[in-house]
Every structure is written in C-alpha cells, then in structure tokens.
Amino acid sequence: MKNGTRRTFVQRMLAAAAAALGMPGAFAAGTLPGRPGMRRVRGDVRVNGITAKEGTLIGPGDTVTTGANAEAVYVIGKDAFLQRANSTVRFGDSTTAEFLRVVTGALLSVFGHGEKRLAAPYTTIGIRGTGCYIETEAQSTFFCLCYGKAELRTDGGQTMTYETSHHDQPMMISATAASRASPVENHTDAELVMLEAYVGRKPPFYGTAGTGY
Asked: Would you place residue 16 in the very low, low, confident or very high pLDDT band (cuts 50, 70, 90)?
C-alpha cells in the first residue's frame, strides 16, 4: 500500500471513529476528553459481579467480566480498553505490582506515558506508552505489541525486550518460551484508532502506515 493510500485509509478510520464518538472535530483538534469509566457496554458486562452500564467507573482492585457475545469499552486515566466476550480482567490495587491481569479471554489496550506491568497466563509484560493485544488460549497466551516498547518475561524465565511500530512481532507464549506467532489476529487498526480517540490521542501509525489490519 502506497504512503498516500495509507494516509487516506487511516484518516478515514479516524474520521469514522470520531463520528462514532459524536465528536467529528476531535481528531483535528486533538482535544477529545478521556471521560473515565465504561464508554460502551454490550451484553452481560459486570464490575465486581455487579451489572455495568455506561459511566460505571473502574478502579484499582476491580474485576471486569464479560459474558458470551458481550463486549466492553472503558477508560481508566490515560488508558483505554476493549474487552472481548468471555473475558475476565483484574486490575491491581496498591498491594500489587501488576496494573492488570488478563485472567481469561482477550483484551486490546492503549496506554499513555509511563511504565506499567501486565500479566497473563505464562507471562508478565512491562510496557511503556504502548498499544497491545492479549488473548489467552488453553496452553498459551497470544501477545501482540501493536506499537511501543515491552519487556516480556515467561514463567520459565525467558526475557526479551523489543519495540514495534505496527504489529511487527506478534508472540505466542507458553509456560517455557515465547516464539514468533502467526500474523495479526483478532484485533484491528480501526479498533486501536477508536481506543486512542477515547483518550484524545492518535495511534503512532497515523499518517505513515495503516495497512488495514
């Protein structure tokens, strides 16, 4: 895809996401507010076992669960999340080093500046200013560093630090090792654009890449 075509594609995604959020000028102005809490709820979504609705806040120590065919989009501070169906995500409190743990299921996240520690079966991940996707499987965890920096450590002690700009190195992580995975799965650039919009940002591939994941 040529650069001009890429720019047009991503600009269209940004415009569509802004329109969906009801703020068509938000991307141009760069001022879309990061209103906290649930921004979109579909199906059975719960926070600490209590049915969630738009505006429900999520904070330290909270657990967000989604049932079959459910989906939740929510904002915490400068970070935004898209949680898939049949997923459980637990946020750490002041007594834990983990910012969040994907217990089961799948989570697409975008983070503002600053270091955070994520956890999932078979791995812990240190991230900084990152967009990433985590999906748990029966014997492994799929991790895509969509952009940004990460330090990945398996439960078996393997450590790797790397940086990507556009889904460059998806990984499959088992109890003993992390290895290169198949191409990008189950998350899209359009979804990353949407999440960044909720916190008033553009993804780093805006204007330079965007191949249609």
From this structure: low
